[in-house]
Amino acid sequence: MLGLKKFLFRGSAQANLPDDVRASLELWRASKSPPLDDLHFHTRYVVVDIVSSGPNPDSDQLLGIAASSVWKGAIQPDDTFYVDFSTLDGEGSTVDRELTAFLLFAAKAPLVTYHIPYVGGFLQRAFKERLGVDFQPQWVDLAWLLPSMFEDKGDTVMPLDHWLEVFGLEAGMGRRDAMVNTLLLARIFQMTTVRAVGKQVDTATHLIDESRASSFLRRNH
Amino acid sequence: MTTQQQTGQEKAPVQEQVVGPVEMSLRQDGRSRMAGNTQAFLRKHAPFNKMQPDALQHFAEKAQIVFYAAGNEIVGPDSGKVRFFYLIESGKVQARQAGEVTVTEYSILSLGVGESFPIGAVTAGRPSTNRYTAVEDTFCYQLPAEDFLVLLTSSPEFNLFCTRYIASLLDQSRRQLQLQFSQRASEQQTLNSPLAGIGSRSPITVSPETPLRAALETMSKAGVGSLVVAGDDRKAVGVFTRTDLLDRVVLAELPLTTPVGQAMSPNPFIIEEHATAYDAMFAMATHGIRHVLVTDAEGRLTGVVSERDLFSLQRVGLRQIRQSIDSAHNVEALQQAAADVRQLSFNMLAQGVGAEQLTQFISALNDALTRRVIQLNLENHNFDGIEWAWLAFGSEGRDEQTFSTDQDNGIVFAPPEGAAVDTLKQRFLAYALDVNNNLDRVGFPLCKGNIMASNPQWCLTLEEWKDQFGTWIRMPQPDALLNATIFFDFRALYGKSELADAMRRHLLALTASNPMFLRAMAKNALDVEPPLGKIRDFLTDLEPGHPGKIDLKKYGSRIFVDVARIYAMASGVHNTNSIQRLRLAAQRLSIRSDEINAVLEGLNFIQLLRLQHQYLEGEPGTQGDNLIDPDTLNELDRRILKESFRQARKIQARLKLDYQVQ
Fold first, then answer.
1. Tens of pLDDT, residues B277-293
2. How far is residue A74's CA from residue B66's CA, in Å, rounded to a whole number?
3. Interface mutation target, options B7, B33, B38, B147, chain A, most CBs of A under 10 Å
4. Chain A neighbours among B 90-129 (CB < 8 Å)?
């Protein structure tokens, strides 16, 4: 039974992993998740955005990840992450190492993004296929959270560009670099946490719950 | 497979070496991208758009992004030492003066995109004096203070920007210092003055029976906005104002033949003339009125005090004081005049008179006081037919008196042919003792070092003075050098000023022929250095009895004064005032004018600070000191003080070079 499970879920992928990757993954698995009941100010959130070859997580390719942390109220330049897979052409161990590096960077912090099915979908598939990791982080989805936090500014799920306009954030012209996008999301997230505190949503746990609840409510009602 | 596994085993702890560096490198990529994003913003704003690429890169790689919702404080005096330099990316921030004392010209200032704060505080590593609040949702770049300081030293463009910014604040600070005085001055003068002396003495009145048309014509002719309505007994029954015209006449459609008594506001607010300005102010504030009627004890109208009168009270005038000094017939009358001098000097300080003019002005009035004391005592001592002069030394000799100045004086006399010098000297000493004691009563304390005319050492004939100067100059022992710093700043205050001129010519001739003396003076002047710390801003532990304090005279103004004396003697300048000495000597020695002006600014600021300290912090009726605690200064004054000390250091360095003092 154990062998079969291993084979099905991670065994096959992991069997070919370089030893250093495997060791890092073990380390990552063994690491403790940070507490989520601290105030936003003390919680390290990782804001993440991706680049893909198309909109479909099941068939299109993950081409890059851009992430930055929001910690102590600030977007920290010393705590950012950017990887571009597009030039590697799927070259095995390098991609594995870079994906593992992302796990180490994120360090099980709650992840913030815009539209989990897209970002989470690509990340989940990549981690599963390449590393045999079932990637289930604590997600905060701004796409669902914003309408419930800023009901005065928009009460439905809207494209990100609409929110950028509403908040007066300068997004620049044309296609945005993934890092630029992440930094814009991070700014919106900073605004969100301030607003959330005003609504007594003052810890990561509360915020994650709120994100889930709003997505559930809006989908079902 | 085996090989692979062996490799793996060999590099078991290897992940640190493989995935670890990959993570580091991807973090570096993230940082570069974020920095690129930040740089795009910086390039659009001064001074960053002029900065070198590596400096800009440093800023961009260290700057965090923070958000402040509208209404939230970003940094303020209570936040402690400022930890970040903020640059506004979007939104608006309001800077507001905290506390009672305003440091800068503005009390509220709005900062927008591309502007930064709090430059002064982060440079000085102190808490901010302003309270910065986001008035709109605001994003800022925040650069940690340590990175800000790195940038200050590595980027000349950034350094220039911050220095200029602070320099502009310094100028504002000086002006505010004066404003602060003027506020205190107006409070002091208004609040305790009786109303009898304030406001209009002959208010325009009409009787209640006067028809409205006539009343309005009277108002129009006199160009006033209000009338007092009073009966023949001059007892006020009401006030008629422009507001009444609108409400009670025009809107009520009263014919202009109606008596004014029917349209006035009855029961005006009346206050007796013995009440103080404070009472009037209080009444105005309480009842929301602009005018108060003033009456005598019987209730008869004697005047009207308006809000405006309370703020433009007559100040004690210079001419009045001069008259009261010159006509004083005893020490008691002079005591009052001395108090007025102090008040008037303070008012002038309040009106923005600079330290240079002010110290000369105080000296001028103190001269008048001293001269009057000298004159009054001549009624009991007769020196007819003898040439003599009363000499002032030290700060009085330099026209640099502050509020707290003790006596430094002497007498020079030329005994007539064949006169008994000793007997004459005894007469002068007896006279001087009376003068010294009277001066003490008038407010010039006796000199602790006994540098007074009643001391036989300093009551000398012209020849004795010349010999004395000669001895000091030829043998520049420590005592002689110390005396030189006091006695070489002399001028005649009363009597035959030619005697003092003769002393001066002799002195300058002696110093010109004894170059070693000036060198010894220079060495002596360099013994005390300005209290600038290598790590901290100031050294505050130089005075054993007063930890935490700086003696602004000993470590501040005296440095300038000593240097000024040496250059004056070296270039044959006859003046004794330090500022005049430095200006004239600079011309003769070809020192650049901007360089000397910066030095004079430094001296002036220290003097102004001394005056402020002596007036604001001295207990009433006691002599103020020169000991200030730099921690109690606001941040900008600290910075100006630091700059002033740097100027002191600069001019000392020049002296060192010119006189080859090691």
1. 767 766 766 666 777 88
2. 5
3. B33
4. 90
